């Protein structure tokens, strides 16, 4: 059984593709890439068909990640095939939960930083789009910090379903 995770931000060119790439790498390192599918999308379709923001690509490549990405908009029909929908900030969380066709689907939506015990009360990953390269570095740090906890939660969920 394949476990499916989709990361969602605003336009699917900065935060969510970064989270997708980092988490896909963590899944591969754990030897789960044949059992876990990782994807991303945006709450809006402004950048549909575009690649990731060049600053996102640069930061990822500077840290040893390879990227290939085409932006797209999240569709409510996807809930039925997804196990987990990871929002990058509370605005996305609310928008996605409103899009969810059922209460069960709404429960699939979680904030990425909720998987980082060091995050404290500030669970939003700030949008780096309107800033400089330091915002993209900060975004990557937050994504990487939450990815280990997310991987542990996915693994636990998969084991629970197999039992």
From TrEMBL:
Entry-linked InterPro entries: LMW_PTPase, Ptyr_pPase, Ptyr_pPase_sf, Tyr_phospatase_low_mol_wt
UniProt keywords, alphabetically: Hydrolase, Protein phosphatase
EC number: 3.1.3.48
Hydrolase listed as a keyword: yes
Top-level taxon: Bacteria
Coiled coil: none
Domain Phosphotyrosine protein phosphatase I: 3-153
Family statement drawn from the similarity comment of this UniProt entry: Belongs to the low molecular weight phosphotyrosine protein phosphatase family.
Protein name: protein-tyrosine-phosphatase
Organism of origin: Streptomyces levis
């Amino acid at each position: 059984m394949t476990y499916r995770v989709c990361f969602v931000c605003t336009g699917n060119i900065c935060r969510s593709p970064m989270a997708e790439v980092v988490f896909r790498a963590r899944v591969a390192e754990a030897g789960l890439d044949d059992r876990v599918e990782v994807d991303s999308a945006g709450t809006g379709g402004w950048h549909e068909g575009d690649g990731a923001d060049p600053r996102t690509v640069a930061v990822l490549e500077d840290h040893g990640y390879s990227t290939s990405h085409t932006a797209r908009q999240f569709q409510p029909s996807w809930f039925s095939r997804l196990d987990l929908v990871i929002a990058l900030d509370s605005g996305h969380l609310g928008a996605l939960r409103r899009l969810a066709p059922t209460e069960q689907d709404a429960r699939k939506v979680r904030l990425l930083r909720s998987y980082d015990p060091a995050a404290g009360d500030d669970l939003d990953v700030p949008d780096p789009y309107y800033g400089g390269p330091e915002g993209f570095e900060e975004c990557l740090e937050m994504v990487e910090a939450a990815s280990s906890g997310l991987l542990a939660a996915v693994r636990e969920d998969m084991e629970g379903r197999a039992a």
